[in-house]
Known about the structure:
Low-confidence stretches: none
Mean pLDDT: 81
Radius of gyration: 20 Å
Shape: globular
Distance between the termini: 20 Å
Number of strands: 0
Amino acid sequence: MNAFQNPLIRIIASIAVGLLLILYPNAALPTILLIIGILIGLPSLYALLVYLLSENRNKLPFPVLSLVMLLFGCTLMLFPGWYIGITVYVLGGALVLIGVYQILYLLTLKKNLRSKAGWLSYLLPAIVLLIGIEILVNPFSATERVMVITFGAATLLYGITDLIYYIRLK
């Protein structure tokens, strides 16, 4: 079972990422990209080394995907500034999808459980959705720091909202 299928792991991870982004906005994105680069690069390097050191490598196909992922991980580590520009759009899109998903989830719960969700339950996902739209529409009007803090607040809000749902439905 995937660890992120556990709701508590997802909740803790989103709250931790949100706090990291809020408390350390200048270092957050480059640090996250560095960590992702390492997490992608190391297994790929290992796969390539296993292939190169294997005695029967002539019988095995060359691990092209490992080479591509190693190059991708290295570029993430060496050129984080370029990826930060792209990451802003990805993060904004992720917030829009998360906000829509949470609203649809509440509507499905209302329909299936025939219980009434309070307006506050819809307010938090709507705020996450609006923040995502704001980031997508106007990504470079604010400084990177403000965008990172905004995304951090939205991610923290997402984690708290999921925690509330988790406690309510448990």
